[in-house]
Design a protein that fits this description.
Elements (H helix, E strand, L loop, with lengths): L3 H10 L19 H9 L3 H22 L11 H11 L1 H10 L14 H18 L7 H20 L20 H21 L12 H6 L24 H9 L23 H4 L2 H19 L11 H7 L2 H19 L9 H26 L8 H8 L8 H23 L1 H9 L3 H8 L15 H39 L18 H17 L1 H19 L8 H7 L3 H8 L14 H5 L11 H20 L5 H7 L16 H4 L2 H10 L5 H10 L1 H21 L3 H20 L2 H4 L5 H21 L1
Helix pairs in contact: 1-3, 3-4, 3-6, 4-6, 6-7, 12-13, 12-14, 12-20, 14-15, 15-16, 15-17, 20-21, 20-22, 24-26
InterPro entries: CALS1_helical (IPR058851), FKS1-like_dom1 (IPR026899)
GO molecular function, one term: glucosyltransferase activity
Keywords: Membrane, Transmembrane, Transmembrane helix
């Protein structure tokens, strides 16, 4: 309560001026807006306390971002209210717009009352949400409840008069204690409980019970307002028992609109046809490609270039007849698999299914007829069709091409929307009637999932993956499976066999069709089932390349960890820490897209080093909490960034610097007075350089701390200043005798052990 932003939020909530209290209300000190909502709508006391704290923290959090300095926070900022309100009511406003209803968020014209009204709306929503319990799994149900209660709130504040009673508007469920819980939440929760019993632990059929999603879908339609407010107990939303349904059927006059609602948009039908329907585009594509490849291999030379020959190309176009038949099968399957949901479907959805079947049936007739008229000298079934529709008519190939273009126009539009997902996203989210009509044919309009599409880059990568996979699969199928069988099949069909050594399943069939079926059946099965093999191959290659670019699994040993550890802080700050807008640190270009090299963190960037150290130490501490490492191992792995802030360098974990100092001492002892040579040898191992610098800096700080005399301090500072000058001028070894440096190191270690022992005793 001492923070200025908290005080500003509390002061705004305590503005209860002009609120109409009930006559029986007893005034209490420090009453606020949430207390008034509790007395009007009957919320629980503890819920009010929780949501008061919730709302205060929400407002204070946004308010402090608007005014970072405490002295600039005289009162709650209106922008903070607007931001919080926009976040809270984002789904509610979308729901109202989707159903074509005006929201109940009416603001007064007097500017002084706007802030109070916004707080009332937000407080009411949070109180409903806090007491909704399992109804939170049904967000649109909460929108329905809030829509009516917010309208009642507006009516009470505006002094509206009810046309039914002639009195001032009051909440439908009153303001008794726990009225909202008992009269609003409990009936809906009991409906959920009854539906759960209907499921019998998931053993019942999908069509005889409803889960949270099914109940929530009821509020995706304008029909949800039939539920009324206060909610009618006999509405179709509420579940009735079998006995109640039996009594209802025995009545002479029954209201058909009050029956059990059931599923709204989808009812599961368990069938093996789902194998085709769930992947209908894949199966249809494979069937059409198989037909085209057989036609190309059967006619002409068998090469793919034969498709450019006139007769072969016209025969390949027969795949559109097959496509029309498959489309009719898909439409019929859609109707069959949605049959159990026919009672709860809207008229527009039923009309869509009927038109889908009708349009597919029309194309099944149009495609063969126009194809038959595209041949100059038709034979077989094509000639039969021409005889049905006038066999003496001239051929018209252009008519079949026009039919194909019209047939493919919806697919062209779908491809265009696929290439430009932002257009499809806009069309699906739009609530204009024209846009809704355009999208109505492709899919039923649902509230959830509209406009949820991947980015253009993700779609491009996904498309390229499947293009490579399908080209590889189809090329293998054509050259290794289909084309080699065409020649033997023609030979088998030309051979006449009169006596069989085994039973002939097709004794009256021509061209040895039984042998042909036996020959082609395994090939066809392999053709349809080898996609998973190609998927495994291509996904392995793509995953391997992606992992190689991202350098996954590169660090496999402790030595490799030591060699790569210097780049970890830079990678952490580049990938996980957001950059300031003023800093243009992000690499651009094609090479940067595939490059995963990160700059080493310079010692001057203490802030970035501290960020990484905190993250790294948190990970190591979690390892210790899970008992994956011991205390000793944790001490070796932690980054000691908090030990001595006076050290102007990055301090690495001790396990990286182990044994570096003794090796450096031996190198200095045997350097033969050559500073540059020693410096080059130290620079080979960056961790050794860091260890030497850290050891020297720590030694200097420790000696300066232990020496308390003024005279002694001057002497020590003079010694260190001369050493620093020699280090800078690269004359340390030539000017000083370092043969006793190992002895000094030993004395320093003994000093550290003594200090540690002293601290332990204290």
């Amino acid at each position: 309560m001492r923070l200025p932003e908290i005080q500003a939020a509390v002061a705004a909530l305590r503005n209860i001026r002009g609120l109409p209290w009930t006559a029986a209300h007893k005034k209490k000190p420090d009453e606020d807006i949430l207390d008034w909502l509790q007395s009007m709508f009957g919320f629980q006391k503890d819920n009010v306390s929780n949501q008061r704290e919730h709302l205060i923290l929400l407002l204070a959090n946004v308010h402090i971002r608007q005014f970072p300095r405490p002295e600039q926070q005289p009162k709650l900022d209106d922008r903070a209210l607007t931001i919080v309100m926009k976040k809270l009511f984002r789904n509610y406003k979308k729901w109202c717009k989707y159903l074509g209803r005006k929201s109940s968020l009416w603001l007064p014209t007097i500017q002084q009352e706007v802030q109070q009204r916004k707080l009332l709306y937000m407080g009411l929503y949070l109180l409903i949400w806090g007491e909704a319990a399992n109804l939170r799994f049904m967000p649109e149900c909460l929108c329905y409840i809030y829509h009516h209660m917010a309208f009642e709130l507006y009516g009470m504040l505006a002094g509206s008069v009810s046309p039914m009673t002639g009195e001032h508007v009051k909440p439908a469920y009153g303001g008794d204690d726990e009225a909202f819980l008992q009269k609003v939440v409990t009936p809906i929760y009991e409906t959920i409980a009854k539906e759960a019993k209907r499921s019998r632990g998931g053993k019942s059929k999908h069509s005889v019970w409803r889960n949270y999603d099914d109940l929530n879908e009821y509020f995706w339609s304008i029909r949800c307002f039939r539920l009324g407010w206060p909610m009618r107990a006999d509405a179709d939303f509420f579940c009735r028992t079998a006995e109640e349904l039996r009594l209802e059927r025995s009545e002479i006059k029954s209201n058909s609109g009050d029956r059990w609602m059931g599923k709204v948009n989808f009812v599961e039908i368990r069938s093996f046809w789902h194998i085709f329907r769930s992947f209908d585009r894949m199966w249809s594509f494979y069937i059409l490609c198989l037909q085209a490849m057989i036609v190309i291999a059967w006619n002409g030379s068998g090469e793919l270039s034969a498709i450019f020959q006139g007769d072969v190309f016209l025969k390949v176009l027969s795949v559109f007849i097959t496509a029309a038949i498959l489309k009719l099968a898909q439409a019929v399957l859609d109707v069959a698999l949605s049959w159990k949901a026919r009672h709860s479907m809207s008229l527009y959805v039923k009309l869509r299914y009927v038109l889908k079947v009708g349009a597919a049936a029309v194309w099944v007739v149009v495609m063969p007829v126009t194809y038959a008229y595209s041949w100059k000298n038709a034979s077989g079934f094509a000639q039969t069709i021409k005889n049905w529709f006038g066999g003496h008519s001239h051929n018209s190939p252009s008519l079949f091409i026009v039919a194909i273009l019209i047939y493919l126009s919806p697919n062209m539009l779908s491809a265009l929307l696929f290439l430009f997902p932002f257009i499809r996203r806009y069309l699906e989210r739009s609530d204009f009637k024209i846009m809704m009509l355009m999208m109505w044919w492709s899919q039923p309009r649902l509230y959830i999932g509209r406009g949820m599409h991947e980015s253009a880059l993700s779609l491009f990568k996904y498309t390229m993956f499947w293009i490579v996979l399908l080209i590889s699969k189809l090329a293998f199928s054509y050259y290794a499976e289909i084309k080699p069988l065409v020649g033997p099949t023609k030979d088998i069909m030309r051979i006449h066999i009169s006596v069989y050594s085994w039973h002939e399943f097709f004794p009256h069939a021509k061209n040895n069709i039984g042998v042909v079926i036996a020959l082609w059946s395994p090939v066809i099965l392999v053709y349809f089932m080898d996609t998973q093999i190609w998927y495994a191959i291509v996904s392995t290659l793509v995953g391997g390349l992606n992992g190689a670019f991202r350098r996954l699994g590169e660090i496999r040993t402790l030595g490799m960890l030591r060699s790569r550890f210097e780049s970890i802080p830079g990678a952490f700050n580049d990938c996980l820490v957001p950059h300031d807008k003023s800093e243009d640190t992000k690499k651009k270009g094609f090479r940067a897209t595939f490059s995963r090299k990160f700059d080493q963190l310079p010692s001057s960037k203490d802030k970035e080093a501290a960020r990484f150290a905190q993250m790294w130490n948190k990970i190591i501490s979690s390892f210790r909490e899970e008992d994956l490492i011991s205390d000793r191992e944790m001490e070796l792995l932690l980054v000691p960034y908090w030990s001595d802030p006076d050290l102007d360098l990055i301090r690495w974990p001790p396990f990286l610097l182990a044994s570096k100092i003794p090796i450096a001492l031996d190198m200095a002892k045997d350097s033969n007075g050559k500073d540059r040579e020693l410096k080059k040898r130290l620079a080979v191992d960056s961790y050794m350089t860091c260890a030497v610098r850290e050891c020297y800096a720590s030694f200097k700080n420790l000696i300066n701390y232990l020496v308390v005399g003024e005279r002694e301090g001057l002497v020590i500072n003079d010694i260190f200043s001369k050493i620093d000058v020699h280090i800078e001028n690269e004359t340390l070894i030539t000017e000083l005798n370092l043969s006793a440096l190992p002895d000094l190191y030993g004395q320093f270690v003994r000093l550290i052990e003594y200090l540690v022992h002293t601290v332990t005793l204290q």
